[in-house]
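stage 2 :: seqdesign
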């Protein structure tokens, strides 16, 4: 292999099709990357509960990042214990170590209980209301509400949303605007967690890794900016990404075919032949 690398990817609209969440066309490429010992790192807004099903379906044995950079989940025995940063905790309910970069959901909820924003809290509103707001079925909504590090809020009044945003930022929280919700989280992002994980690989394996990052929406901008090669996968949201990058790749196809197209183009830049 000419160069060691990590493939760090968003999920919805990037690896999974934006409309029907298809992933089938990407399976051969995922298998080839595994054979070449190129880790594929999922970096998503999804919760652990949501992502775990995909991790198992795609037989991914590598670390992954949840809730917009809030935490890194590392399979136990993946890295030597001596390499893991202080504060990394073993999750008693899973086979992962957890490195939290943001705030816990308990801390965020306590703050929301105190300031009482004029918004619907996705975590504690009636389940039927959560399903209506998102279009998720019952099982999907339950998984999406199992949040550990962030809370989505839905505001009807943009002025109240803006007022709350200013207050939360001033109080030390992070704010991320998604398609439907305003996400309250810690001061963390997809780019910070990606680079933290890359430094873990470097420290534990004594190897320099180039990062190929793939995303499709403004939510992925920081991750793409901090990558060595940035792949923008064509989607209904991709035209909104304002990214200046010397090694930017834009795909013609949408996910999952566009994900394969982007990975192949990026690997060609660093002379890795599939």
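stage 2 :: out
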């Amino acid at each position: 292999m000419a160069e060691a690398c990590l493939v760090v990817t968003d999920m919805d609209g990037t690896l999974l099709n934006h409309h029907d969440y298809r992933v089938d066309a990407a399976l051969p490429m995922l298998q080839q990357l595994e054979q070449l010992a190129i880790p594929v790192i999922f970096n998503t807004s999804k919760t652990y509960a949501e992502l775990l099903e995909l991790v198992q379906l795609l037989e991914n044995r590598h670390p992954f990042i949840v809730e917009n950079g809030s935490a890194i989940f590392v399979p136990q025995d993946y890295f030597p214990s001596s390499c893991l940063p202080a504060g990394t905790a073993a999750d008693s309910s899973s086979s992962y170590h957890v490195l939290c970069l943001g705030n816990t959901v308990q801390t965020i909820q306590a703050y929301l209980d105190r300031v009482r924003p004029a918004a619907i809290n996705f975590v504690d509103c009636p389940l039927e209301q959560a399903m209506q707001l998102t279009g998720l079925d019952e099982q999907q909504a339950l998984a999406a509400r199992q949040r550990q590090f962030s809370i989505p809020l839905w505001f009807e009044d943009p002025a109240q949303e803006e007022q709350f945003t200013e207050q939360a930022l001033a109080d030390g929280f992070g704010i991320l605007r998604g398609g439907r919700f305003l996400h309250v989280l810690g001061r963390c992002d997809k780019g910070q967690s990606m680079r933290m994980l890359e430094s873990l690989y470097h420290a534990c394996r004594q190897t320099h890794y180039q990062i190929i990052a793939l995303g499709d929406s403004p939510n992925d901008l920081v991750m793409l900016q901090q990558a060595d090669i940035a792949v923008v996968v064509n989607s209904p949201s991709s035209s909104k990404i304002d990214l200046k990058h010397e090694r930017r790749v834009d795909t013609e196809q949408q996910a999952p075919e566009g994900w394969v197209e982007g990975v192949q183009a990026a690997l060609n830049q660093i002379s890795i032949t599939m």
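stage 3 :: structure notes
- The first strand starts at residue 5 and ends at 9.
- Residues 177 and 183 are 6 Å apart (CA to CA).
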